[in-house]
Amino acid sequence: MTAHDDLSNAVTLGEQVYCSIQAAIADGTLTRGQRITERGLADLLGVSTTPVREAVRQLTQEGMIERLGPRKLHIANLSRTALNETDEIEAELQGLIAKFATRKATGADITKLSALIDDADNEFASLKQRLDEDGVVDESRAPHLFDALRDFHAQLVSIAENPILERLLNQTAALSPEQRATASQLRDPAAIKGIELRYPDHRLILDAIRSGDAERAYRAARDHALSAHGEIRRSA
Ligand SMILES: [Zn+2]
Predict the structure, then answer these.
(1) Do 140 and 219 have their domain in common?
(2) Centre of ligand 1 from the C-alpha of residue 126, in Å
(3) CATH label of the domain that carries residue 187
(4) How far does residue 29's CA lie from ligand 1's centre (Å)?
(5) How much is the pLDDT for 94?
(6) In the prediction, which pLDDT does 2 show?
(7) What is the whole-number distance in angstroms between the Cα of residue 158 and the centre of ligand 1?
């Protein structure tokens, strides 16, 4: 192995650890204000402290982790105002994702997005039917709906193909309540009703992209993100 290989592997691992810590903050494994150590994070993620140190340095620069002393670290404890503003930032970024995706989408991309929404429609229809008939959320099907919608949003990011925008979005998404809310939504009929209100947004975004209207796609995606956040923060 050359020195160069060694270096590029180290960079990759640091990057992976960075993403894992962001995901742990997003899904609530690490909570706001929680005291952490580089050793503890390394144990949690099953890696050595070297890539953790690199990831922590970056997350500290980005404001996700705060350093109070040489060995005193905690997950940033952002105020309610700061979190609400982060939601607004994320919504704007989601709008830009849709705008850039509109400019770059090929016919094949649009076919793929349509297929994902068609899948989601089927899952949503059967979930809704079960809910209306029996008043219960079919937990065996709900994850498929969330997967299809998550794929749809991920596909938009991939079509938008802008590394800087993607990086900023990951940064704000780690603070978003959305990921954590998803698990509880699976069991809560009231929350499913809320999703029902926002569900048609996905087709509005797709239609705007298909007709090449980047501004309309921007507004539809931004408003979709804003209404999701508003609802989740209210019910939290
Ligand atoms: Zn959505």
Answers:
(1) yes
(2) 18
(3) 1.20.120.530
(4) 23
(5) 96
(6) 37
(7) 15
Whether residue 100 sits in one domain with residue 38: no
Q: For residue 217, how far is its CA from the centre of ligand 1 (angstroms)? A: 13
Question: How far does residue 33's CA lie from ligand 1's centre (Å)?
Answer: 28
Residues 68 and 51 in one domain: yes
pTM: 0.75
Exposed e or buried b for every residue in 76-90, given b needs 16+ CB within 10 A?
bebeeeeeeebbeeb
**101 Cα: distance to centroid of ligand 1 (angstroms):** 15
For residue 17, report the distance from its CA to the centre of ligand 1, in Å. 27
- Give the integer Cα–Cα distance in Å for 148 and 96: 21
- CA–centroid distance, residue 149 to ligand 1 (Å): 6
| Buried residues in 128-143 as b, exposed as e (16+ CB within 10 A) | bebbeeeeebbeeebe
Give 71-90 pLDDT, tens digit per residue: 889 999 888 888 888 889 99
Confidence of residue 145 (pLDDT cuts 50, 70, 90): confident
Count of all residues that appear for the chain in the document: 236
* Structure confidence by residue, pLDDT tens digits, 28-63: 889 889 999 999 999 999 999 999 999 999 899 888
Pairing of strands 35-36, 73-75: antiparallel
What spacing in Å lies between the alpha carbon of 58 and ligand 1's midpoint? 29
Q: Which domain holds residue 168?
A: 80-235
